[in-house]
Amino acid sequence: MRIYIPSTIPLLDAACHAGEFGPAPQTVYAVTPALREWFATADDEELEYAAMEQAARASVGLIAADPTAPRKRVVVACDVAAIPPADGTVQLGDARLELHVVVPWTAVAAAHLDGDPAVEVVSKAAELWDVAHGDTADPGHEDAVFALDSCEGEDLLWYATQEIPDFLAAVGPRGGLQDRTG
């Protein structure tokens, strides 16, 4: 089964070096029965995309929590043998699952990251993350939700598993291009 792990560039770098995503439990996203029921007419590809988009949204929250992380969403696609069933508290359309195991780096199928043009949109969404998830009576709530929704207009770039270490070496754990002259 394909799962999507929301991440940041520093977290991706740490997982690459550790050889695993963890610790458990961790929130991941997948095509759940609740997602399948909500998008009843969608095909498998559309459902996978919807699950990945929910993971990308969660990545914004991780970026908001780390002011030093580059303002680029990261979603890591992994293939795992089994996913525990949802506990029944999942809302209709929700792709979120709690995974009670670490995910080995060998399960990584690809990474999806924002390109440079998305940095401004993602930065704004991360800045307003707490407002978007707070009290809907907050006068800035609608602007915050709009900023978060605007991220969905930015396409994530695809990196094959073998490209991820080279990408991380080029940008470093904080996402800036490394000086390769020395």
UniProtKB/TrEMBL annotation:
InterPro entries: DUF6912 (IPR054206). This is Uncharacterized protein.
